[in-house]
């Protein structure tokens, strides 16, 4: 939970009611929520949002058909495609700069046959082969079939145990023959050390054991983001950088993960078709590279963050070398010190500022609301 010193904290934890429209059936439908059951709703949907259905549906925030918002003056308004449309657009990536969202109305979609998903785990020595396979998938099968995706591939150095590389294929098309969809065969050709992927319900997929994930929330945390164009050469170089950079760390409980989240042109096209978002995404074949780091003790904060900054600088220089660096930051994953709102581009930034001045004339959410990324 966020906090503020000598201020007022608005806790939204009891605002957890889910209501299905009377016209909808109770089963066989889904929304573009987070990939894990522990992911909160407001931050996900006001920061663009990553779901298992990103390839076919676009960013999670693209499926918000209406925001109910409490403005700084206390007025409650709806923001959608026909009423306060500028605020509707701004909230899809503009996070906490405009008001307090008290209700999200989401588009639903049919999910009649469950999903096929899971994890393919590899030894760190296979990292480059997995990165190559991800590039082959991203420039071939994932472009041709939006319903087949690899929402993320993650390289992990745990505080205790062996470093691994995990790929997480996902599809809501389950009427294929064989043990897995043919589109993701390159990942199987490498020879994963273990496989948990299978047919299951979406609920089973999101309700997996979150104990290891939740334990990390009791530790120190840092994160950072870099968006890059799909590049075989860059992927090859990036594959070994994590293990090389952090191999000498002596920080207690140091757990490092880098996830690669493919963003195909279809993701951006579908998002724009639904009204667009404020995230500055270009219609390119790209990858959002996200660093997540945990450690045990506050005394190690400076050393840990210094290592992270140096690592992200190495990634940035590699992306620049291969002409693959993209300017925008993903608000859900960006580092604290990054100017996320300006990274969306000059036109989007100015539009966001205009929306802020229109709905928050006294700039309450710029001056008095701590946290997040401001429009300054």
From TrEMBL:
It comes from the Eukaryota. The keyword Cytoplasm does not apply. One of its GO terms (molecular function) is oxidoreductase activity. Keywords: FAD, Flavoprotein, Oxidoreductase. The keyword Flavoprotein applies. InterPro entries: FAD-bd_PCMH-like_sf (IPR036318), FAD-bd_PCMH_sub2 (IPR016169), FAD-linked_Oxidoreductase (IPR050416). Belongs to the oxygen-dependent FAD-linked oxidoreductase family. This is Bifunctional solanapyrone synthase. It comes from Colletotrichum higginsianum.
């Amino acid at each position: 939970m966020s906090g503020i010193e000598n201020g007022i904290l608005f806790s939204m934890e009891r605002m957890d009611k889910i209501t299905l429209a009377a016209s909808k059936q109770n089963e066989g439908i889904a929304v573009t929520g987070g990939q894990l059951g522990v992911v909160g709703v407001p931050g996900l949907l006001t920061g663009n949002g990553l779901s298992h259905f990103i390839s076919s549906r676009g960013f999670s925030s693209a499926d918000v058909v209406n925001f109910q918002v409490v403005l700084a003056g206390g007025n409650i308004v709806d923001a959608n495609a026909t009423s306060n449309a500028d605020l509707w657009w701004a909230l899809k990536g503009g996070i906490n700069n405009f008001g307090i969202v008290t209700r999200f109305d989401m588009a639903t979609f049919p999910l009649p046959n469950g999903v096929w998903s899971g994890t393919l785990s590899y030894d760190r020595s296979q990292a480059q082969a997995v990165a190559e396979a991800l590039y082959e998938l991203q420039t071939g099968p994932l472009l041709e079939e939006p319903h087949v995706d690899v929402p993320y591939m993650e390289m992990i150095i745990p505080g205790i145990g062996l470093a691994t590389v995990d790929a997480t294929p996902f599809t809501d098309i389950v009427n294929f023959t064989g043990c897995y969809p043919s589109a993701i065969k390159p990942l199987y050709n490498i020879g994963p050390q273990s496989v948990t992927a299978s047919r299951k319900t979406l609920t089973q997929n999101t309700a997996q054991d979150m104990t290891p994930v939740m334990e990390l929330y009791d530790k120190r945390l840092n994160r950072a983001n870099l968006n890059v164009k799909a590049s075989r050469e860059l992927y090859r170089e990036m594959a070994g950088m994590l293990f090389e950079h952090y191999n000498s760390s002596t920080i207690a409980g140091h757990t490092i993960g880098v996830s690669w989240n493919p963003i195909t042109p279809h993701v951006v096209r579908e998002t724009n078709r639904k009204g667009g978002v404020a995230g500055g995404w270009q219609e390119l074949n790209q990858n959002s590279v996200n660093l997540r780091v945990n450690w045990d003790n506050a005394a190690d904060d400076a050393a840990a963050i210094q290592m992270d900054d140096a690592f992200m600088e190495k990634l940035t220089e590699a992306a620049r070398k291969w002409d693959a660096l993209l300017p925008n930051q993903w608000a859900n994953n960006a580092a604290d010190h990054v100017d996320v709102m300006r990274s969306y581009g000059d036109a989007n930034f100015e539009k966001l500022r205009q929306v802020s001045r229109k709905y928050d004339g006294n700039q309450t959410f710029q001056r008095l609301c701590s946290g997040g990324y401001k429009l300054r």
